[in-house]
Amino acid sequence: MIAGAITNEHAGVASVNYGAEEHQADTDYQVCLINHSHEVPPTPFIVFKIRSVDTFLKLDLDLHCLLIKPDQQHKISEVLAMHSQSLTAKRIFLNVCLLTIAAVIFSAPARVVAQQADYAAERQRALQLYDENKFADAIPILEKLVKIKSDDPDLWERLGWATLVVAGTIKDSTERKQARDRARAALLRAKALGDDSNLLRGGLESLAGPDPADLSFSRKKEADDAMREGEEAHARGDLDKALSRYKRALELDPQLYEAALYAGDMEFKKAYTSTDAQYRNDHFDASGVWFAKAIAIDANRETAYRYWGDALDAQGKTDLARDRFVDAIVAEPYGRRAYVGLTQWGQRHQVTLGHPRIDPPNSTSTRDGKTTLSIDPKTLNSTDGSNEWLMYDLTRMAWSKGEFSKNYPDEKVYRHSLKEEAAALRMVAEAAAKDLKSGKVKTLELSLDNLVRMNDTGLLEPYILFAHPDQGIALDYAAYRKANREKLRRYWLEVAIGIK
Q: In terms of domains, do 330 and 433 share one?
């Protein structure tokens, strides 16, 4: 299965997938429109132990004392009267105590219910402010709520993201660093409580990198200033003002990718938080116009494709959304965020994603300049073509001895390359296909069958680049993409999506 998740590095909203990871802030922004139910703890029982005095025993002792003193017997009537008065007073006092205790017992649940209702209302208000991108307003409420209930990962996650977004607008470097530290602490707390969302991952990834405020959006000061003004408006939830500033930044610097991307993000958020069908559709369409402009500036960055896919999927344009998510992976296949859109699309639409299984059974190792080949004995004298896997290992050994230098004359140090891996696998595929055609074998084992299919469809190189890249092979990706972008897209649309 494809590993990945979503984030809008730009805004930080949680859920459906928009930039709500990155779109969901680039910030990986995730618009969280999911209502999390708050489980109210059971009403606590208050237990009291009432300790009573044995009044009649005490009276008996007093009378006994009087009776053994004949000279004081005349005071018996006085003592009885005093005790009668004392008992009456004690009964009155005891009744008052019992009424007080009853009041406490029966009023406690009411107070608890009231407190729970207040908490739930404040929680809902904080989430609403967050969803409206009013991060600065949401922060103090979220801070209060996590003090009351410290084991709610959703609140910690939103507190972390809101603080991270607002931190980007703080001009003082010391205060900004403190805010980023608070954001990190909140996100780590959410993680410790079991949160593993794309939004959380995106936030921690962003915090692991340099402070964006220390970097410039543009070398043109006016454009950079306009971007920062847009970010400040965005943190306040003023999407219209933010949009106008991003537009202005793009006018001042037509090659500023983030300006077009963030303008589209604002249109997306305006659409996503609306309940008016026509308004939503119009602004989703408008977001696509801006994302297309960002792609025209740099087609090899994944974010605009992914954000655009989010907008299309929200409109019910499922296949178009899928295509944009594929484009995101083709643009930047070796980062986690590129896979977020397609992964979530597959989950929403119950489509399985994955790569064909192709596992060479043998292995080689090199030590002190000597290469050792270990052959799986099951492949010898096989009836399913497995013996042809030996060609893979022999071809790779030849590349390490001299073929690499012939194919990459400008590189002085050997590395595992796309050409080597494709040559080795193709040797096996062609030999296995020949065995099958001649009737030497009746059926191929699973890995060989998949390999022959990849070779026959012309998608062997894309398979290698996406399913089995290593550091050496990844170095060949940009050149291959430049000449074969459509083949890379075909691999996902024809092979990896809907795999059995």
A: no
Report d(CA 24, CA 39) in Å as an integer. 27
- CA torsion through residues 191, 196, 200, 202, sign: positive
Range of the domain at 372: 363-496
Mean pLDDT of all residues belonging to the chain: 81
Task: Looking at the structure, tell me whether residues 286 and 388 fall in a common domain.
Answer: no
Overall number of domains in the chain: 2
Q: How far apart are CA 265 and CA 275, in angstroms?
A: 18
Label the pairing between strands 27-28 and 363-367. unpaired
- Does 376 lie in the same domain as 343? no
Average pLDDT score over residue span 129-158: 92
pLDDT recorded at residue 209: 84
- pLDDT tens-place string over residues 386-399: 889 989 989 998 99
- The predicted pLDDT at position 89 comes to 58
Same-domain check for residues 424 and 455: yes
- Residue 210: the pLDDT is 85
Contact (Cβ atoms closer than 8 angstroms) between residue 296 and residue 261? no
Overall average pLDDT of the 39-48 stretch: 30
What is the number of other CB atoms lying within 10 angstroms of the CB of residue 406? 8
Q: What is d(CA 185, CA 412) in angstroms, rounded to the nearest whole number?
A: 46
- Candidates 162, 133, 137; CA nearest to 241 is 133
Whether residue 413 sits in one domain with residue 370: yes
Residue 372 sits in the same domain as residue 491: yes
pLDDT in tens, 459-477: 999 999 999 999 999 999 9
Of the chain, the percentage scoring pLDDT greater than 70 comes to 74
Same domain, 386 and 437: yes
- The sign of the torsion formed by the CA atoms of 367, 373, 377, 378 equals positive
- Range 133-154 average pLDDT: 92
Bigger pLDDT: 76 or 407?
407
Q: Are 383 and 310 in the same domain?
A: no
Residue 10 falls inside a structural domain: no
With respect to residue 302, please indicate whether it lies within any of the assigned structural domains. yes
Assess if residue 282 is contained within a domain: yes
φ, ψ of residue 285 to 5 degrees: the values are -60, -40
> Alpha-carbon distance 328 to 341, whole Å?
8
In a domain, 196, yes or no: no
CATH number at residue 333: 1.25.40.10
164-192 pLDDT per residue, tens: 989 888 888 899 899 999 999 999 999 99
Please name the residue that has the structure tokens 């193709």.
426
Highest mean pLDDT among 62-71, 85-94, 411-420: 411-420
DSSP string over 421-435: HHHHHHHHHHHHHHH
Q: CA triplet 315, 303, 154: central angle to 5 degrees?
A: 75
Tokens of 243: 């949009």
How far is Cα 417 from Cα 474, in angstroms, rounded to an integer?
Answer: 8
- Please state, in angstroms and rounded to a whole number, the distance separating the CA atoms of residues 138 and 472: 46
